[in-house]
Amino acid sequence: MAELTLDNVSKVFVEDDGNHIVAVDDVSVDIRDGEFLVLVGPSGCGKSTTLRMIAGLETITDGEIRLGGEVMNDKEPKERDIAMVFQSYALYPHMTVRENMAFGLEESTSMGDDEIDERVSSAAEMMGIEELLGRKPRELSGGQQQRVALGRAIVRDPAVFLMDEPLSNLDAKLRSKMRTELQRIQEDLGVTTVYVTHDQTEAMTMSDRIAVLDDGRLQQAGTPLECYHEPANEFVAGFIGDPSMNFFDVEVQGNQLRAADFTYPVSDETLQEIGDRTTLELGIRPEDVTLSTDGATGEHDFETVVDVVEPMGDENNVYLTFDTGGEPDEDDETFVVTVGGMQQVEAGQPVTAHIPEEAVHLFDAKSGESVKNRSLEQVETLGKRV
Ligand SMILES: Nc1ncnc2c1ncn2[C@@H]1O[C@H](COP(=O)(O)OP(=O)(O)OP(=O)(O)O)[C@@H](O)[C@H]1O
């Protein structure tokens, strides 16, 4: 059993001048046995510090970390059944690949040479590095070093893998190849894994669940689709998804959401969810807006003009400006809309943007908390790309 639990975990660094930095603030999350959890968030949000506390490389200021029910707080790193893979790979330069992989086992266990050899061979096979076992790290490419670092973690057969941006030094193509390979290996081995990245594509594609951090605080822990379609707040909504969700400041007037001349009527059901709030942030995903040249025929259709078209291959990112009737430029809202690559759209072209109410997200303007999300059920019935 290797369930990993973080219970109200905090980390405060005290600098020489007495200044307190709250790097991790009261984070609680349960990582199930065999689960692949990705910790994601912007630079400085506390991802690495969280991982280092789990590894025992950093003390815990407050709270408790448990592995398989056992409290880890005061255990030395080597007493924890955990293997960590770093961004820098951290291979020993004077050792061969075989020695690098075997080193941890020789140091920390009374395992016989035969079993060590067997484990190294099997991990090398899994990582496809059998031919490299006699080489030194300097004789390897970045991708190969990365495989050795992963192989070294696998050899240990730990209860938990911790990975800190392990793919970020690889080029884009190798990175996406390693993403799928790593996922497969983790699934085959069934080892509980906590993986840190600031790359939300990695988070979306690799994880069973994502834990989104901002400013040391856990914003949401959920499946990639939950975080994408049912974000807990505006931060998660804006962070997950590329291009990012479009946001619009609106006021509630009767059954309309308004920004100067922009009016967006909503249903009674939506009004109920809004309650007595008077200011909101309206959010809409780029792929949920549709563009046409038919003119505005419905109450959720808006006339606009294409600013820029960014071809992405199979689809285009189309930038539009919504004239909301305020000061030109200042109060206008810029939108990005994703359309299929076959749809002919060019800069300067007048278009009608349709913003379907079922896909609209609403957030409390003050707290940023979610007020209305599109539900996963709606996504399925709409047959939208997810
Ligand atoms: N040893 C330290 N002493 C003081 N402050 C620290 C220390 N380590 C981290 N911090 C601070 O704690 C906060 C969280 O840092 P952390 O490295 O965990 O963030 P991160 O999300 O991993 O960022 P990145 O993606 O840039 O690596 C930051 O404000 C950082 O400056």
Task: Describe, in plain words, how this protein is organized in 3D.
- The two termini are 33 Å apart.
- A hairpin with a 2-residue loop joins strand 9 (209-214) and strand 10.
- Helix 2 packs parallel to helix 4 (142-155) and helix 3 packs across helix 4.
- The strands form 4 sheets. The protein has a 6-stranded mixed β-sheet with strand order 6-7-8-3-9-10, with helices on both faces.
- The protein has 386 residues and is of the alpha+beta class.
- It has helices at 47-55, 97-108, 113-127, 142-155, 172-189, 200-206, 224-229, 234-239, 268-274, 376-382, and strands spanning 4-14, 20-31, 36-40, 62-67, 70-71, 82-85, 160-164, 192-197, 209-214, 217-222, 246-253, 256-259, 262-265, 279-284, 290-292, 301-311, 315-322, 333-340, 350-354, 361-364, 370-372.
- Residues 13, 21, 23, 41, 43-49, 198 line the site of adenosine-5'-triphosphate (ATP).
Question: What is the CATH T-level topology of the largest domain?
Answer: Rossmann fold
Describe the global form: elongated
Chain-averaged pLDDT? 89
Strand order in the largest sheet: 6-7-8-3-9-10
What's the β-strand tally? Answer: 21
Q: Describe the largest sheet.
A: 6 strands, mixed
Number of helices: 10
Quote the distance from N terminus to C terminus. Answer: 33 Å
Taking all Cα atoms into account, the compactness measure Rg is: 25 Å
* CATH architecture descriptor name of the largest domain: 3-Layer(aba) Sandwich
The parts where pLDDT drops under 50 for at least 5 residues are 382-386
Number of domains: 2
Strand content: 25-35%
Helix share bin = 25-40%
CATH superfamily of the largest domain: P-loop containing nucleotide triphosphate hydrolases
Task: Give me the secondary-structure category.
Answer: alpha+beta
CATH class of the largest domain: Alpha Beta
Hetero compounds:
adenosine-5'-triphosphate
